[in-house]
Structure formats: C-alpha cells, structure tokens
C-alpha cells in the first residue's frame, strides 16, 4: 500500500511541475508559468484545426507566438532580436556617461557578437507577420501587388490592408465603436447610408455590421470567440493589431529589446488584452477571413 501511495504522490508532483497556468479563453499564460528548453511560453501556440478558406489561422497565430516567446524568453536575461521602432529612434540619442556610442549602437554590437540579426517592430509590422503566415506565400504576394498598385511604395497600414482584404479576399469587416468616440456620429451615419467605414482621404471599407460597445458587448464577445484570427485597427488607423478570439494582441513600438535599456515598469514590446477591457481607443474595425463551408 505504501508503494502505491508513493507512486500517486510522485505522479502528482510531476503533474504539478508541468502544469500551465491558463489565463482566459485563448491560452494566454503567465510569463513564469512554464519553461521548456529555457523558452518562456508567453503565448501558447495554436493546436486547432484551420476553419478558414484561403487563410490558415493556426499558422498565423503560431508565427505571432514564436515572435512573442522569443522576446519574452530573452528580454530579461539578455536581449531579444526584436525592438520597437520608436525605442530605436530614442536610443540613438542616448549615451551613457563616458560612452562614445549610443544605446542602439551598443545593442547592435551585442547582437552581432552573439550572431543575432536584429529586427525592428511596430504595430503594423507585427500584425503583418501573422497575416503573411496565415495567407501563405502566394496569396500574400497577391495582396502586396494590390497594395503597390493602389498605394505605390507607401507602407502597410491597418486600413490599407483592411480595404484589400474586404475588397479582393472576401474578408468581412465589422465596426465596433463607443458612443464616446469622436467619430461616432460620422461613422454611424456612413454605416446607415452606405454600410461603409470612411477612412480620411482613402477608399471606404465595406462593413457588414456595426456594434455599439455600450449596448452590444455580448454580441461583440460572441463574434470574437467565433474567430481565432482577426485583423484590426483603431481610430482611422492610428493603431493596428490582431485578435486571437477575444484577445487584442498588439506591439508597443516604444519597448526596448532588453531590460538593460528599459525600466521594469515600462510596458513590454508585445501586449495582450481582453477586447472588452481594451480602452486605448474608442472606435475599431475588425476584419475576419471567410469560413470554410461545413
């Protein structure tokens, strides 16, 4: 009997050691919850079957997870290959006492010494990484051709890609807006008149439905939970992000690649927030890929 009790106890201890603390509905986990091969799993990879036509959401989520997990694994103990574009701008103007090189140059030297190729990040670059993985090489090249045809050499934007996805890739856009938004009246009027979202001096984005945050939170949550991936932007394109079910996943372009350069109270490079708690902006467009017909 004592041997059986010991085996049960041993199994429990092993189980407890390997347990992952799951936060909310999309397997976002605490940073110190689990480590494997010294990798911190800030974002669990997708293990779902793809449900979209012309887009692979597990591949998109896994591309994002790989980026985030690399960053959170390395940012505290050494440095990550990823850094925010605004941090780069600021770091080029910061020097330590007695130094002849700025903080960004110091970081690049550290990376080179460790044979690491650095990679800048801001909100749209980050979101495009996931979109590109989900679309695949051929379909992403088609998107790029449309983008260049319409906007020539202009960089990607949340609204420009949303327009292409809805116009040429059969994705469906939804307007989610607060009554407190400064564009509430114009956006709601445009939806009622032509079922489109007006981006200033850019093509209108067709939208299927409008949700008012104060009235329709349950319907918003339900829509998000039906989709593993969504392309999103806020307030005329001031910020771009993606959704993983009901989580907003975004890049903070002010973040440093290492805690050596960033204060502990400053936000990290990648942030995940429940959509219903996301209050940085009051108006949003979210675009979802077409589902495979069952």
Q: Helical percent range? A: 25-40%
Instruction: Report strand %.
Output: 15-25%
**What is the number of helices?**
9
Order of secondary-structure elements: HEEEEHEHHEHHHEHEEEHEEEEE
What's the mean pLDDT score? 88
Radius of gyration: 22 Å
How many strands appear in the DSSP assignment? 15
How is this fold's topology laid out?
Layout lengths: L1 H17 L3 E2 L4 E2 L5 E2 L2 E2 L16 H18 L7 E3 H7 L11 H11 L5 E3 L1 H13 L1 H15 L6 H11 L3 E6 L6 H11 L1 E2 L7 E2 L2 E4 L4 H9 L4 E5 L4 E6 L2 E5 L18 E5 L8 E6 L6
Parallel strand pairs: 5-6, 7-10
Antiparallel strand pairs: 1-2, 3-4, 7-15, 8-9, 11-12, 11-15, 12-13, 13-14
Helix pairs in contact: 2-5, 5-6, 6-7
What does this structure look like?
There is one protein chain. This protein is an alpha+beta fold and 294 residues long. It has 9 helices and 15 strands. It has helices at residues 2-18, 57-74, 85-91, 103-113, 123-135, 137-151, 158-168, 184-194, 217-225, and strands at residues 22-23, 28-29, 35-36, 39-40, 82-84, 119-121, 172-177, 196-197, 205-206, 209-212, 230-234, 239-244, 247-251, 270-274, 283-288. Strand 3 (35-36) and strand 4 form a beta hairpin. Helix 5 (123-135) packs across helix 6 (137-151) and helix 6 packs across helix 7 (158-168).
């Amino acid at each position: 009997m004592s041997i059986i009790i010991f085996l049960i106890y041993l199994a429990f201890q092993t189980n407890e050691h390997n347990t992952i603390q799951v936060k909310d509905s999309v397997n976002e986990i605490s940073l110190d919850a689990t480590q494997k091969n010294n990798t911190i799993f800030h974002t669990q990879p997708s293990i779902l079957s793809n449900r979209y036509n012309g887009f692979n959401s597990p591949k998109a989520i896994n591309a994002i997870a790989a980026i985030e997990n690399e960053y959170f694994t390395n940012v505290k103990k050494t440095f990550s290959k990823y850094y925010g574009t605004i941090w780069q701008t600021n770091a080029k103007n910061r020097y330590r006492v007695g130094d002849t090189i700025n903080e960004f140059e110091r970081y690049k030297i550290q990376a080179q010494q460790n044979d690491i190729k650095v990679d800048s990040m801001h909100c749209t670059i980050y979101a495009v990484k996931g979109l590109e993985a989900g679309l695949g090489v051929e379909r992403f090249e088609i998107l790029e051709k449309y983008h260049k045809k319409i906007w020539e050499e202009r960089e990607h934007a949340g609204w420009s890609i949303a327009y292409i996805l809805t116009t040429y890739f059969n994705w469906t856009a939804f307007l989610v807006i607060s009554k407190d938004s400064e564009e509430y009246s114009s956006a709601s009027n445009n939806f009622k008149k032509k079922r489109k979202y007006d981006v200033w001096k850019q093509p209108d984005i067709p939208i299927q439905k409008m949700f008012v945050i104060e009235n329709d939170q349950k319907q918003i949550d339900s829509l998000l939970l039906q989709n593993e991936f969504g392309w999103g932007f806020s307030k005329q394109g001031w910020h771009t992000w993606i959704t993983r079910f009901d989580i907003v996943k975004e890049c903070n372009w002010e973040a440093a690649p290492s805690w050596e350069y960033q204060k502990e109270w400053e936000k990290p490079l990648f942030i995940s927030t429940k959509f219903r708690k996301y209050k940085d902006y009051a108006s949003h467009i979210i675009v979802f890929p077409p589902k495979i017909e069952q």
